[in-house]
């Protein structure tokens, strides 16, 4: 979401410093280096079990050491809704 000139004028010096630091950050600063993973042969139940943790909303699907997909909590909900 862009910051408007009016919002910039209202920001304190500390907020401006924090904004500048955030904008200078890289994806590396945000990324998880050891994400939860599943293989494509794992069950939907295994995905649901991992995503039961409120801090896990996406699970990487890895086969042979390569990322082959990502399953999101919404994918799981849609799948379960379509099968019941």
User: CATH homologous superfamily, by name?
Assistant: CBS-domain
Based on CA atoms alone, the radius of gyration comes out at 19 Å
Give the class-level CATH name: Alpha Beta
Number of strands: 3
Could you tell me how far the N terminus lies from the C terminus, measured between alpha carbons in angstroms? Answer: 38 Å
CATH architecture: Roll
Strand order within the widest beta sheet: 1-2-3
| Total domain units | 1
Describe the main β-sheet briefly: 3 strands, mixed
Q: Which percent bin holds the helix content? A: 40-55%
Q: Shape from CA axes?
A: elongated
Summing up helix and strand content along with how strands pair, one would put the structural category as: alpha+beta
Topology:
Elements lengths: L4 H6 L2 H12 L2 H4 L6 E2 L5 H8 L6 E6 L2 E7 H10 L2
Parallel strand pairs: 1-2
Antiparallel strand pairs: 2-3
Architecture overview:
This protein is of the alpha+beta class. The protein has one domain (5-82): Roll (CBS-domain), CATH 3.10.580. The protein has 5 helices and 3 strands. Strands 1-2-3 form a 3-stranded mixed β-sheet. The protein starts with a helix and ends with a helix.
Q: Would you kindly provide a brief summary of this structure?
A:
This protein is of the alpha+beta class.
List keywords for this structure.
84 residues, alpha+beta, CBS-domain, 5 helices, 3 strands
